[in-house]
Amino acid sequence: LHFDVKTRAVITKDSRYVVVSLEDKTELQEVGEMRRNFVANVSHELRTPLTALLGFIETLMGPAANDSAARTRFLTIMDTEAKRMNRIVGDLLSLSRVEADRRVRPRSLVNVDSILRSVIQTLHPLAAARHVNLRLEGMEEDSEVLGDQDQLTQVFTNLVENAIKYGPENGEVSICITAHSNEPTLRGPAVRIDIADQGEGIAAHHIPRLTERFYRVDSHRSREMGGTGLGLAIVKHILNRHRGRLRIESHAGNGSCFSVILPYN
Ligand code: ADP
């Protein structure tokens, strides 16, 4: 806890006393620290690919200037690193956009079922590359909620993409959509979308931290799969804006289920 302590002597006609006031600065300090950590994390995340790029540029301008085989190899790596920086910057922009408009609640009616169908179509090539079967189950009607079409598309893209990336090759990802007249988490009518994979699962102590920016269970695996560590932070902010929830159920060795719960309006 951080307090600012102020004392003041008060002298009146009849008495003298001292006023001591305590101002709780804990939250301000925490926000300041979070901001500093965030800037440090962003710098670190961007510096890694940038250092690689600078190293390869130097080599291509010097010792490897006339080596065409090395040039092709280095340019391929540089392309991967530049794309990685591009993804990080893109995700940071998405995050700051959703943080900026979190107070305004979306007002258009959107159809969750059709959003899921288009997400499945978009991710089909990624799933096919890993021989993963994407299965959509559940309702086709009554899946309209008040929401932002682009933001909800981003939520489901991030979650289904994770399920494909962190699930096994030749596995299955099931996406199940159900209506609840009284969803216990929201204590009211809601639509729930469960995205379940057959991956290695996540140990319990990681689960509460997964939506923190840049938090990864296995950094190497995340980077290898092209992850930025920002996907679930974006999901959380978008769902907050929709008064929705993200529930994560997972057991190490037993796959994971990420559930999105959105209120009916
Ligand atoms: P990333 O870009 O690294 O995938 P996310 O914010 O989307 O970042 O996810 C954070 C971390 O949560 C991932 O690095 C991964 O360790 C873990 N994770 C997310 N989804 C899954 C999943 N379906 N199965 C196992 N681990 C997951």
From TrEMBL:
Annotated catalysed reactions: ATP + protein L-histidine = ADP + protein N-phospho-L-histidine
Any Gene Ontology biological process: cellular response to phosphate starvation
Residues of the full protein shown: 91 to 355 of 355
Swiss-Prot/TrEMBL keywords: ATP-binding, Cell membrane, Kinase, Membrane, Nucleotide-binding, Phosphoprotein, Transferase, Two-component regulatory system
EC number: 2.7.13.3
Keyword Nucleotide-binding attached: yes
Start and end residues of each Histidine kinase domain: 41-265
Lineage: Bacteria, Pseudomonadati, Pseudomonadota, Alphaproteobacteria, Rhodobacterales
Class of enzymatic activity (EC top level): transferase
Localization annotation: Cell membrane
Name of the protein in question: histidine kinase
